[in-house]
Specification:
The chain is of the alpha/beta class. The protein has helices spanning 35-39, 46-68, 87-104, 113-119, 164-174, 181-189, 214-224, 231-260, 275-287, 297-300, 305-316; strands at residues 4-9, 14-21, 25-33, 77-83, 108-112, 132-137, 142-149, 152-158, 264-268, 291-293. The protein has eleven helices and ten strands. The strands form two sheets. The protein has a five-stranded mixed sheet, with helices on both faces. A hairpin with a 2-residue loop joins strand 7 and strand 8. Helix 5 (164-174) packs antiparallel against helix 8 (231-260). The longest helix has 30 residues, at 231-260. The structure holds 5'-O-[(R)-(carboxyoxy)(hydroxy)phosphoryl]adenosine and zinc ion.
Length: 347
């Protein structure tokens, strides 16, 4: 059964809406980034994020409908991000989704944010089919997951502390770069010399697929402490940091492919935009007779298209929510089951 699903994403600092049609695919996709609002605070301020979602969300739904030339009566269901994320921000999306579902008399479903990311590659023509290994690297998450199908996820490894994007952002701050620091640090690293600062490759010496980036951050703190860094030295630090993090991500990804016997890696999340990571993954996976697939950046970073797509799978299988509004700040991916299975809703 195919449906026309409205997707809503408000888990962090992007307000996003999309319309996904089971037959035609994506027919509207809008993202409003709140980065300018949070920049002066040097990071996301949860309460400001919630308030901005309140102001932006409904006008964006209206704009998406008119862009696609769709009347609300044509909507068959609504999917919203129910977690994990900032609880106030999540509640804005949850409340609006439930209110619209009530007003339009259509079913509503809460979607796991990471399930959205894991299924997002399917929005691309030529996307690899299941099974594949996903490397999810963003500001909030760093994990390797074996994706066997919709709702069939096995976490292979996760960060024990900071996410990869968070490590980029914190190191950028240390070097006096603005927020968000990842792209600025990557740009600075372009001018740095490799090997001048040889930072540790976190947890590469140990078996297993978990990550830890706080030690790397500390190594950078120690290296720059008490020193007046000129521009050349700052670029060298940035380069050394980037080399260490990229080497770690690529090596663990290769290990994950080997452990699962799979040959396809799908990369998602903002850090997936990093040029050095993309080049290293492409080259080292090719050498291992595997391949890396990078969805276009707008499907890698937070968006509502992936939420609408994931929601479509579940709504079309007959999953429905009962009355309570769903939103939870913490939610393990391990609790998901394939669409339509018994006990599929963990709440
Ligand atoms: O997926 P995303 O847009 O948002 C969430 O975290 O949900 O990821 C943002 C993260 C930030 O930490 C940002 O610094 C990082 O991705 N990032 C990068 C690059 N572009 C974005 N990190 C390294 N190199 C980049 N080119
Ligand atoms: Zn995300």
């Amino acid at each position: 059964m195919h449906m026309l699903v409205l997707g809503i994403e408000t888990s962090c600092d992007e307000t996003a809406v999309a319309l996904y049609d089971g037959e035609k695919g994506l027919v509207a996709n809008r993202v409003f980034s709140q980065v300018e609002l949070h920049r002066r605070h040097g990071g996301v301020v949860p309460e400001l994020a919630s308030r901005e979602h309140i102001v932006r969300l409904l006008p964006m739904v209206e704009a998406a409908l008119s862009e696609a030339g769709i009347e609300p009566q044509a909507i068959d269901g609504i999917a919203y991000t129910a977690g994990p994320g900032l609880i106030g921000a999540l509640l804005v999306g949850a409340s609006v989704a439930r209110a619209l579902g009530y007003a339009w008399d259509v079913p509503v479903i809460g979607v796991h944010h990471l399930e959205g990311h894991l299924l997002a590659p399917a929005l691309e023509p030529g996307a690899p089919g299941f099974p594949f290994v996903a490397l999810q690297v963003s500001g909030g998450h760093t994990l390797l997951v074996e994706v066997g199908g919709v709702g069939r996820y096995r976490i292979l490894g996760e960060t024990q502390d900071d996410a990869a994007g968070e490590a980029f952002d914190k190191t950028a701050k240390l070097l006096g770069l603005g927020y968000p620091g990842g792209p600025a640090l990557a740009a600075l690293a372009e001018h740095g010399r490799p090997g001048v600062f040889d930072f540790p490759r976190p947890m590469l010496d140990r078996p297993g697929l978990d990550f830890s980036f706080s030690g790397l951050k500390t190594a950078v703190v120690v290296a720059v402490r008490g020193r007046e860094l000129d521009d050349v030295a700052r670029a060298d630090v940035a380069r050394g940091f980037e080399e260490a993090i990229v080497d770690t991500l690529v090596t663990k990804s290769l290990r994950a492919l080997k452990a699962t016997g799979l040959d396809t890696l799908v990369v998602a999340g903002g850090v997936g935009a990093n040029r050095r990571l993309r080049e290293a993954l492409t080259a080292r996976l090719a050498a291992a007779r595997a391949r890396a697939f990078f969805p276009r950046p707008e499907f890698c970073t937070d968006n509502a298209a992936m939420i609408a797509l994931a929601g479509h799978h579940r709504l079309a299988a007959g999953e429905r929510e009962d009355l309570p509004v769903r939103a939870q700040a913490r939610w393990s991916l391990d609790e998901l089951r394939p669409p339509g299975s018994e006990g599929t809703r963990p709440f």
